[in-house]
Amino acid sequence: MSKKASVSQTMMWIVAGFIILFILLVFILFTSGLVLKKNAPFVGDRDKLTLNYQTNYNLGGQRVLFLILNSESNEKEKFSNLVLSSNFEDENDKTKLKTEGEKILKSIAGEKCYSLDLKKTGKEIGIGNFESVISFVPIFSENLYLGDSKTEINLYEYDC
After folding, report:
1. Is the pLDDT of residue 133 over 80?
2. What is the CA angle 75-160-79, rounded to 5?
3. Mean pLDDT, to the nearest integer, of 132-148?
């Protein structure tokens, strides 16, 4: 085997290695720039997907909130579906939400009790005993979406 042939192959792989490293470096810089700006463009679309980072993240609160939302009401309907389908301006829907929500909150109460604050289209419904809530900083917050309708749910915890 000729030494000239092995030198050209070595030089080719060195150049190819630099090109691969350059492409990798550009990719890393581009993706880290998107993460720092907290938005990423959709491919083929001008809209942007906003990345939301939740600062008030409590794993126990998340578990309790998911337990509440997945609980069944008297009509064998999940509480989350009841919240999403309710019209917060209708008094019948408000009383139905409050009674079903309070039943669920009482059923899961142990050492700690919970209250829910529901917000939808500028209207707000409080479920539970808000007089006993010490801190009005929710232990967990979640947004539920149905079509273009957004429902914000805040979960509060207090000693029973």
Report:
1. no
2. 20
3. 70
- List Cβ neighbours of 118 (8 Å cut-off, separation of 6 or more): 83, 88, 97, 124, 125, 126, 127, 151, 152, 153
Tell me which residue of 89, 87, 69 sits closest to 79, measured CA to CA. Answer: 69
| Rounded (10°) angle between helices 91-108 and 59-69 | 120
Task: Determine the 3-state secondary structure of 2 from DSSP.
Answer: coil
Distance CA 9, CA 32 (A): 35
pLDDT in tens, 66-75: 888 888 877 7
Chain Cα centroid distance, residue 100: 24
Instruction: Concatenate the DSSP letters of all residues of 80-141 into one string.
Output: HHHHHH--TT-HHHHHHHHHHHHHHHHHH-SSEEEEEEEEETTEEEEES-TTS-S--S-SEE
Q: What are the structure tokens assigned to 39, written together?
A: 């938005």
Phi and psi angles of residue 92, each rounded to the nearest 5 degrees, phi first? -65, -45
**Are the CB atoms for 154 and 124 separated by under 8 Å?**
no
The two three-digit tokens of residue 150, written as one number? 């957004």
